[in-house]
Amino acid sequence: MSESRLGGGTIRKLWHTETEKFRDHLLRLDKESRRMRFGMSVDDAFITAYAGRTDHLQSVISGYFIDTEMHAAAELRMIGEGWSREAEAAFSVEPAYQDSGVGTDLLGRVILAARNRGVDRLYMNCLSENRRMQRIAKKFEAELHFDHGEVVGQVRTPGPTPVSLWSEAVDDSNGFVMAVMEFPLRLVPAA
Known about the structure:
Layout: E1 10-13, H1 19-28, H2 31-38, H3 44-52, E2 59-66, E3 69-78, E4 86-93, H4 102-116, E5 121-127, H5 131-139, E6 143-147, E7 150-156, H6 162-187
Parallel strand pairs: 4-5
Antiparallel strand pairs: 1-2, 2-3, 3-4, 5-7, 6-7
Helix pairs in contact: 1-3
C-alpha cells in the first residue's frame, strides 16, 4: 500500500537519516493539531526535543510524503525497554491532509509493523474530543475505553505470518526506492 488514496503522495517508512523530516512535519502542525497529537499544548522547543529523542531501534515511523516533504506521521513505539509484546501508536496529520484516508492508511502500516515485531497489544491514547482518531481506531476493531478525559484504544494483533512479513518487506523495498529517488532533490537548494 505504498500509494495513498490522496493523489500524488506516498506512504513509506522514515529512515534514520531523515529525522529532520519528522521534526519539520511536527513543527508545521497548527496549535490544535499539536494538542490533539500530544494531549496538551506544546511549543516548538518541545517538538524539536521530542523529534531529537527518536530512537529508531525502539520505534518505527511511517510518513505520508509529497515529493520530499512529510505531511503526516504514524509512530510505533515500544513500551518499556527493548522490543516487547506491548507498544503505543501515535499519529499526526497536517490539517490540509486530514479526512483524506491518510490516517487510516498509516494506522494499517503501524498495525502491520507491530504484528511483524511480535507486538500483540497496541495502545492508542487520545483526548476524548479527538473523534477523528477514534473513528480511525474503530475501523481496525479497536476496543475504546474512556479514562479521565482521554480515550485509550487497544488493538490486538495476530502474530506474524509469511504473508504479513512479505507485505512489509515489499512496502519497505518500495519505500527505499522512493527515498533514494528523493535524495538528489534534497541536494538541490530550494528556489
